[in-house]
User: Fold this.
Amino acid sequence: MSSAIPAELKHNVKMLSDIVRNLGAGKSQESAVAAVSTHLKKFWSPSMIESLQKHRAEIADELPAVALQALDKLE
Amino acid sequence: MLNFYDPAEQQEAPRWDIDFGTPRVASDTLVSLTIDGTEITVPQGTSVMRAATQAGFAIPKLCATDSLQAFGSCRMCVVEIDGMKGKPASCTTPVSDGMVVRTQSESLQRLRRNVMELYISDHPLDCLTCAANGDCELQDMAGVVGLRDVRYGFEGENHLQAEKDQSNPYFTFDPSKCIVCSRCVRACDEIQGTLALTIDGRGFESKVAAGQNADFMDSECVSCGACVQACPTATLIEKSVENIGQPKRSIVTTCAYCGVGCSFKAELRGDQLVRMVPYKGGGANKGHSCVKGRFAFSYANHPDRITRPLVRDSIDEDWREVDWDEAIAFAATKLKDIQARYGVQSIGGITSSRCSNEETYLVQKLVRAGFGSNNVDTCARVCHSPTGFGLKTTLGESAGTQTFESVQKADVIMVMGANPTQAHPVFGSQLKKRLRAGAKLIVADPRAIELVESPHIRAEHHLAVRPGTNVAFINAMAHVLVREKLLDHAFMEQRCDDASVAAWLEFIQQERNSPEATEKITGVPAAELIAAAKLFGKAANAAIYYGLGVTEHSQGSTTVMGIANLALATGNIGREGVGVNPLRGQNNVQGSCDMGSFPHEFPGYRHVSDDATRELFQGAWGVELHNQPGLRIPNMFDAAVNGTFKGLYCQGEDFAQSDPNTQHVENALRSMECLIVQDLFLNETAKFAHVFLPGATFLEKDGTFTNAERRINRVRKVMSPASGKADWEITQALSCAMGYPMNYGHPSEIMDEIAQLTPTFTGVSYARLDELGSIQWPCNSDHPRGTPIMHEQVFPIGRGQMAVTEYVATEERATRKFPLLLTTGRILSQYNVGAQTRRTENNRWHAEDVLEVHPHDAEERGINDGDWVGLRSRAGETVLRAVITEAIQPGVVYTTFHHPVTGANVITTDNSDWATNCPEYKVTAVQLEKVSSPSQWQAQYQRFSEQQDEHLRTARTG
Ligand code: SF4
Ligand code: SF4
Ligand code: SF4
Ligand code: FES
Assistant:
């Protein structure tokens, strides 16, 4: 994982990547985004989502498009 | 005269206090006979002895007891039966229609007296000084048959000088008192399934032998106590009875160790606990036990126990002993101050699966209503949270589907990522019993666990799945079922969601899920997997049992769903002998999850965003509640390190030892301004605390635990809390001090509130639990006596949802730098972080954690058995002793985490299950090397621990 990512976000970025790898597998981009954003809303505290949204630019390179779109969807 | 409180005595039947001599027989055919002039009707196959006892004519007996099959060796139980020659033994004679039996006559009396005379002629006449005086069947029977003298004298050859075996820390074996009735041998065979005992020799020479004529401690004996329980004399007797004397009263309660949830009679003399006797009426254990519940309770009185509240401002200071009021006020002031400075979300609470339902319910209520956030979690996060997610998604309920008893109807049993004989020992014994009766076994586990091969048991297939590849394995199993046309299409059509079935079928048939394709991923040869899948698919009843070897992976939730898929696809759901059975680690994992301890759910698994549920709780609790999830345990630690999470109330959990990536956890704990730990001992977490609230043991409080079968068992107060407060009272006091009043007078009132607010619990109350003994939820107007088997007609979500379970490889892989995979587990004698069992004689069996290494890997590194080895991962390094064994496959090493100094979690990483954050304890890439000194972490740990012990000592000595 890139060292450009603020240390406090690294774990959340990794967890989000894992969710995308698991929930997104075999799905169209659209349904993957829907599944990931629903999962985040259901199980993640708002503060975790917000911290990633706030640092979107810094983490963008480390996350797949589905993850970023899911974060955008939750704005 | 013992005077026992027994809830079963509140009802007409069954009577657990009576020994009927032979086991109950289940038969729809009834047989009528006459015993001593009284007509009685019993199921066909019942023994004359049992029928007579039921009719109220107890027949003298010595070798018979109703937990064991009849043996017919002592001849004490002879009776007269019309039309039958001689005097048959009533324990081995089955009833028949129209039979006329006499249990009492002069010649019977004479015969029995003669038998007794022979026994007594080779028995020490030391009744008055014998530890079993008053609780000895031999003594009782001598009275019953009217033995007045012994004609043979005591001078002849006898066994009176036989040497006593004191090797076991908990019981003694005095062969001079043995009557060779073989009840102990049969208990070890039939109930425990260890087969550690035999009758050695013949005739006068015959004697009970442990192992190959070894001491008990050096034999295969696992100290379950079944033989002690079965022994009718003082030959096998608890050392505590020898030391303290016979108990005078007892209270039925529940073991506080594993998720089997065994019921025990806590037997006391005055206020002193003499022994824990497994309770025959226990729905889960039916009178059996393991070494932990049966014997390992002395930690309750251990000198390390803290019984006065402690406070300090910084972890570098000595503790100060204070009274309860001061401690609670100190804690509440700190928490309120943190919230004032950092915001409402800056504090939270963690409960433990070791706590009761009522306690965990109160903690989540305190956090949600008193702290004003949903930052509450439970240690189930780090064990079975994937079970909750996976089963809720597929079957609609976050719970196992069966009773333990159900295994007796299974034809094929798959045990995956679980080690029942070590971690769930009483269920392990029940499972072995079924296997000895002919059921077939498939073991899917990286290690050759005991079940793979043990006396009279051999698994048909041991599939040594490589750690981290469970999903690929379970998909391959399903793929074969499709390929071999072994699916239950009728069940899927009737019970499952059509779209989910279609999507699953489309997915699972793909070539990448075939055993040939997965072989290189899982390491399981395709041919072996195909044979196992066929065995599973063709079984009339196939059941799956799984444990932490399934859940504690980056794809734990996916594997749970894969297991549910397998059961749904083969129609193995909704009746006895089948099902999906998560073996829960700790005593109340199920209950702590049921009670709303996860940050996203209220009690009864209802999401916090559900308006109707929230309004219900808001109405009952009188406050506004948050509608979004709070932080989970790892998120709390991350937030603490990041400086946004500052205060934590932790009840009964030791995450500094049990959670992964110890260095990260320690950093998080050091970052907190107020850590409140409520526990029995200054555990690893408490060493970082600012407030210590002394908790109560399970013997000191009322409550309930819910075991792995959803069985709600009562925990009954046996003695007063050593600290003056039960745990629910402490939480209540903290809540009041935080400004959210709670006014419960007894835990039963908490259960009443749970029942009022939770649809699956509406029929549960302490009165109902006393009446029924235990209740398996759901218990409501639809199921007033509870629900032993779930999903018989319909799933809570209507139709079962089959899930597409794509295998995604863990990022934790063996590399050149870290070429081996570490996996972790448990051992029989120790429990979890060992805080309790390490403070008992159980340490004699497992005084340190060791590292199991395959001979090939050891040889490559020049490591010999017993060498100290450094174990290194990308997270950290620790040192422990190597044990070379072929039980583990090459490329994999294994250890346990019961001793803090081992630092097993210094090695584990913060990888976790994608859905629930359950840590991936079971896969860590590591390297090994021979070393001669402890790791840096261990040296630092020793220093820190000594410092903290000193801070405590200062407080205690003033
Ligand atoms: S204690 Fe249990 S394992 Fe040991 S000999 Fe007795 S019955 Fe067998
Ligand atoms: S030890 Fe007890 S149970 Fe075993 S044979 Fe002797 S008397 Fe019977
Ligand atoms: S530890 Fe588990 S199996 Fe052993 S007695 Fe307790 S509940 Fe039963
Ligand atoms: S009790 Fe029947 S033969 Fe011993």
In short: The mean pLDDT of chain B is 93.
